[in-house]
Amino acid sequence: MVKREKVRMGYWRTTDKDGKKTSPFHRRHEAAPELPPLNPLAPSGNATPESETRPPSFTRLQLRNGSASPSDAPASAGSAGDSNDAGENVARTIKAQLLAHYLQTEQEKRVWTTREAGEGAFMKHSKGKYACAPDHVQHDGSGLYQAITQLNVRMLVERADFIINSLMRNMCGVEYGYTAQEELEKVLGKDPVLDVTNFDDVFASGDGKDDGRRDIMMWQAAYTGISILLLTVALGTGFREIAIEQAEDPNWLRLLFIICVPAQVWLSLFFFQAIVGNIAQIIGPIDHMVENSKYYSGKAPKRIHMDTFGKKLPHVTMQMPVFKEGLRTVIEPTVRSIKDAISTYELQGGSANIFVNDDGSKSRAPKPPGNESLKLSPVQLLTAEEATERQEFYDEHKIGWVARPRHDPKAEHSPHPFVRPGKFKKASNMNYGLRISCRVEELMDLTTRTEDWTSQQEHILYTEAMDTAIAERTNEAWADGDIRIGDYILLIDSDTRVPKDCLLEAVSELEQCPEVGILQFSSGVMNVTQNFFENGISFFTNMIYTMIRFAVAGGDVAPFVGHNAFLRWSAMQKVAYKSSEEDGGKLDKFWSEETVSEDFDMSLRLQSAGFIVRLAAYQGDGFKEGVSLTVYDELARWEKYVSYHHTHIRGFLLTMKLFRYAYGCNELIFNPFVKWFTKGPFNSLFITFIRSNIPLASKVTIMAYIGTYYALACSWLLTLLNYFLIGFLNGWLDHYYIHSFRVYFGIVMIFTVLGNISLAVLRYRINEGHLLWGFLENLKWIPLLTVFLGGISLHISQAILCHFLSIPLEWGTTSKESEDIGFFKAMTRVLRRFKWSFALCLGVTGMMVTLAYALDKEYRITMLIAVWPMGTLVVNHFLLPLVLNPQLMTFTW
């Protein structure tokens, strides 16, 4: 029997059945010895530091067995690499020892110790190994060192001030200063005191089913109808000009303009939608933006309560795919934000776990036994030390993770080939982790649980299932921690921040509305560098979410942007499919690896199966996401892929992590040219989209949105053609033809002028900004957006042509950390990345100068309506990589 006695405020000393005092534990780290460890994969409590034989980097099986085979050990870069790793380990040990002695000194200063056995300070320096002060506490017979190893905390001596203060204020009340309510708000994220009269407005009773009917708003359908009406009128005026000319000068060749009508409708529909949308934002209704409808939640649902729900609150798994992001600068802040949300949900009666799909930890494959001479390339993603640091971080924070082998189709770096499929590896990374998790569940289901089944038996069963699942893959995967999937998945990126109190509200809505397959949350922006380009892109992101909320609240189908969204796990399993592999096997695929628009594919499959996607806006900007830090990343996104998102915005539709760009646009609709004769021009995903039960108005809006990318892609070619037509044939063209200067003027008036006004007015009407200051804020970013949107035409057309011509492309992740480099190094990168763009700009400039001054007057092109659109396009393409590059504009050396 173990008893506890209070030693001092915030600490407890355990006493065994013989009355012998053991170690004082901080209350926050107290663990009941009769319960199994929280982490089913934690090292056995019988392990001692002396018997520890694990290597610096370890696999899931090594953690259980405590031994390592040569095939399991991480690859090194030779003796020099081994020496460096050893030096790093020594340095970490010394740092931990110094900090432990410092903490022990501070402990004595505050009289937190009586110098008895089992008292001291401990600092972790590697997995299962601690530096301690005083040194003899490790072998003083108290068992404290072994207990701390089981707890697996980074540092033992810490004082929970806000918990202690809360207890004192509860006891003393106002005599202590103020009540504990303010301290509890730090934990809960909001006022913990709820007036009984408002209880029914916040908490749902019974099974939590939603009794209120959610209707479909028809505003967006009306706006789409008006847009089509305006487009029809515009086309009619063009046909009128043809009719007049045909009557005066018959020439049936004029009817060839009809061939251009389908493309003209597609590329210009978004323009008319912007006109109607901007006017609606200024004078239209906005009440629906704070109400709930079928595809939109403007106010939070009633919360389910663990006492009235009738069963345990649903378990939530937070899935986070990671690649080569920095551990301390990117991943750790995200994990701490997640853990705050988990702590709040656990206080409310729920449970959650973190599941990381790590594509960086196995960037170095191990050398197999007998093949020490096997070629190993230099570190490409993470060093062995960085991979080890990640694994120890996951272990400290009870994070379940799965890491797959590096991409090695020819077995150049490992004994067996391994392919990471997909142009964008995120989908295959998540699929790999989910397959292992599902396999573990299948193996566990083979065992029948009895009525007296204990949690310890469940942990043992889980461990055995994990070992078997890894062994079935010939130990190609590394995994550790809890990788089981809960009722719902919160999909996040590695640079995400989540609100503390988001899980219960999201779970409540999903429980009350079983038809919701994806609950997408609107997001704010998390700035990293505060440079002008990042701030400009942040402005766009905030604007996009405002426009999305306006469109979806009006009845448009909600978008799924691929992160900051809750997914129903049972729905994902329902729409999963089998895909044939080269070896003839069948693998479950939850996310599409064949396209770069895996989120659009998931959204479409779920909606085809009868589920809906809903946008939740009641968290405000509590969810935060990172944006592109450099123009290189933003261009890569535009060249990359476009997902299933749509809305009315001023300027062409732009956002970073929300919208997948040009390559995916083409991939969603068309097959490559080589497949046109066998499969037709349109791919199966587009046909499925057309046949789906998505409302017609939303289909029109999506097609209009996708058309903007083709309009951007062909703008350089059409502008160049217009330059010659107006320059040489002005006055001879049919009146149906609209020259580029008129198009340019219309874009400026609708998007730049009316769009800025409507955005400021809308934010003012929904109490999200001041009218005048909001308008000035919009004007501030016009130059940046003009240069960016005016300089991406070549890059978008390149991506679309690559898909049409079946040119293989792959993309890595976007940089999530700022990089400080000098002016000359940045200029070298710009010249290498944009050399062909610069060459084309200089060539066109030379051509324009020649045609303006070097030829005879009758052949010169000097008209403003011909020169201005072409000159604007050339200048923007030339300035894009220069003036939008903070690394150049700061002039650092």
Report on the biggest sheet: 9 strands, mixed
The largest sheet has its strands arranged as 6-17-12-14-11-7-8-9-10
- The share of residues in helices is 40-55%
Task: Assign the structural class, choosing from mainly alpha, mainly beta, alpha/beta, alpha+beta, or little secondary structure.
Answer: alpha/beta
Overall mean confidence score, pLDDT: 78
What Rg do the Cα atoms give? 31 Å
- Strand runs, count: 18
User: How many structural domains are formed by the residues?
Assistant: 3
Low-pLDDT stretches: 1-81, 364-380, 638-660
Question: What is the distance, rounded to the nearest whole angstrom, between the alpha carbons of the first and last residues?
Answer: 68 Å
Give the overall shape: globular
If helices are DSSP runs of H or I spanning 4 or more residues, what is the number of helices?
29
Biased composition (Low complexity): 65-86
Domain Glycosyltransferase 2-like: 488-725
Transmembrane segments: 221-240, 252-272, 709-729, 741-762, 836-855, 862-884
Protein name: Glycosyl transferase family 2
